[in-house]
Amino acid sequence: MEETKQRVALQERLRMVSSEIVEKGQSSESNKQILRSTLKDNAAVVQEIKQYNEHLNPPREEINTLFGEKENADEEFVCKWFSKWCLSLFLCRFGQKRDDSFAGGAEKQGLVAKDIEEKLYKMREILELLSKRSFEKNLGGFGTPLKFPFGVPENPKFTVGLDEPLSKLKIEVLRDGVSVVLLTGLGGMGKTTLATKLCWDEQVKGKFGENILFVTFSKTPQLKIIVERLFEHCGCQVPDFQSDEDAANQLGLLLRQIGRSSMLLVVDDVWPGSEALVQKFKVQIPDYKILVTSRVAFPSFGTQCILKPLVHEDAVTLFRHCALLEESNSSIPDEELVQKVVRICKGLPLAIKVIGRSLSHQPSELWLRMVEELSQHSILDSNTELLTCLQKILNVLEDDPAIKECFMDLGLFPEDQRISVTTLIDMWAESCSLDDNGTEAMAIIKKLDSMNLANVLVARKNASDTDNYYYSNHFIILHDLLRELAIYQSTQEPAEERKRLIIEINQNKPHWWLGEKSKLLKPQQATAQTLSISTDENCCSDWPQIQLAQVEVLIFNLRTKQYSFPDFMEEMNKLKVLIVTNYSFYPSEINNFELLGSLSNLKRIRLERISVPSFVAMKNLKKLSLYLCNIKQAFENNDMLISYIFPNLEELNIDYSKDMVGLPKGLCDIISLKKLSITNCHKLSALPREFGKLENLELLRLNSCTDLEGLPDSIGRLSNLRLLDISNCISLPNLPEDFGNLFNLQNLYMTSCARCELPPSIANLENLKEVVCDEETAASWEDFKPMLPNLKIDVPQVDVNLNWLHTISS
């Protein structure tokens, strides 16, 4: 009985992985080449298959094709044959295709079991190779689009009142002869939600298949960036566009290639002034539809669908759901009071969600106060009125000012862009004196999420994310109206008295520093503690001479290939946190980097999609985070050791670095280092022998370093190490013998490390509380359970779905 369960479970896992290989292997020419190369590089394995051919009993022509025509074999055949081979080995293991000559006792069965384990590992490795390759994009022509829609948000789990609008919108989109459909309505009415539901509708998917593209414009759309993302999605080499016109021409070629079958393009959140940009997406190809969503009813876009407010019954249903009034332990107020609150919302879903969630589990007194405050405004008069209404919600709930302050910080980032939770943790640790490990910050974020003032997105779940050490896959999505509310809240004081100063430069504006009504901002009087600068390729190069001596947090939101830090940064003597995020496709090159050396109070730097130049010495820097950055020039071509540049560094995070082959020179001499996270760096093959010198290291994450071939013996000297994550280090053959000297190790994460052997010294890990691993590795750990009574072995559910990969570049 138990053997049958094991057989079914393993067979299902193999089929899942096999299916993924087949799907990914045919997605682009580069992936096909990987599979051909994999077979070529595993000649010994193929010889083994030949030996077992009689027992595995595949058709003779298949095995001959595999041997004689490996280079020219059809890629679908290669994928499916490789999968069949692993499944056949599995069947031999459980006796379903076993004969007497093969069933040679427990020893041979054990060898077959090991073979199965190795082949499962190899299949995982192929998936990793396909995943890595999907970021390199070395193809010269148009490839086959990936087998999932582009940019479509997750299908909303709960909606009310959208069935009829969806039916009407679907009729227009599917109607012959209609090329552009406009979905319009007030902000917060649910246009994006309705467009998303349309993309997930079975009838719509039946017509357009996987050729559904979803792009967001917002106030300042960047045509080149949008087109670059589309090229990347289709598995094509991304051109270096010289202008928007060049991007538009290339876009036409791409859409014609995709549009050989039916295609739907959703252009979400179009603002006035962007109509001409939408026109560039109109291409003369058959059965190509464009759905535009906007608060403005543009007459030039033809067919219109107007999304109206919810009828009262639907509004009540949505409100009761958001206010959690159906829960048995909820304190349900008087029904008349519920009706009053719903009527104030005027059927606007965003207002219903925010007000409903804010009143959940609150006393009747607060409900009455909310009704009194909100009854003074009609929130459907304009977006300004809606913002005033939402502001009153914050005012009523001002018992916790930290919530309000942190909400306003969300307005410091660009519209319709994901906000990294780790960025907020860095900011709030310095500006709000929250704890450094993110526990208090996550409590605030969850509160904002519960109030529907922000949405938390976990792009990919890692087991170690649950330990309050790391939230690299956690992001915040903010509705554009709520972003406007955050900015509105931050701009109620005169410009020179604001705590946050937000500057957006989207074209050459010689007087960008003028305040409202052309009143000159007197920078010498500015008291802003946080400065956010958003700019694109049209930014002016000549900054005025301004002084912002009180700034502690500086945020750059870039959409440009090159950028120079402004000279006034040199005078920011109180600057503690620097955050530079590039939202373009290609990494941005930063000039004037050397001025950071004069900022003696700078403690934290976070760079994303940046080509990092040579660092200058920063003696007081405590934390450095590099995400999707090119770092080779900074660390390998620098004459100075990193231990000299950052002598007091306590935390280093490097994620998704394509050019990192080894740790920076001198890293092991930074004895102050407590947290080291090197993740998704596929070219990292080894750690230095002197790694054990990092005697104060408490956390080490090497997640998804797929080429890492071993841990140094000196790792046993890390007596303060409490958490180690080596998950998805698929090339790791074993843990070193001295591993058992990690006396303070409490958490070990090693999923997808099936071939990693455990040394006997494991028995000495008396403080080890949790090991998260695969079933194969769990069996090895079970042998140590009698010696480690406090140990919990956790085997998470296997997930080989790689669809999360496309979120990294969005």
Automatic annotation (TrEMBL):
Any GO molecular function: ADP binding
Pfam families per UniProt: LRR_14, NB-ARC
Occurrences of domain Disease resistance R13L4/SHOC-2-like LRR (ranges): 665-771
The protein's name: Putative disease resistance protein
Gene3D superfamilies in UniProt: Helical domain of apoptotic protease-activating factors (1.10.8.430), P-loop containing nucleotide triphosphate hydrolases (3.40.50.300), Ribonuclease Inhibitor (3.80.10.10), Winged helix-like DNA-binding domain superfamily/Winged helix DNA-binding domain (1.10.10.10)
Domain (NB-ARC): residue spans on this chain: 168-295
Signal peptide extent: none
GO biological process, one term: defense response
InterPro entries, A to Z: Apaf_helical, LRR_dom_sf, LRR_R13L4/SHOC2-like, NB-ARC, P-loop_NTPase, WH-like_DNA-bd_sf
Keyword Repeat belongs to the record: yes
The entry's keywords: Plant defense, Repeat
Species the sequence originates in: Glycine soja
Keyword Protein biosynthesis: no
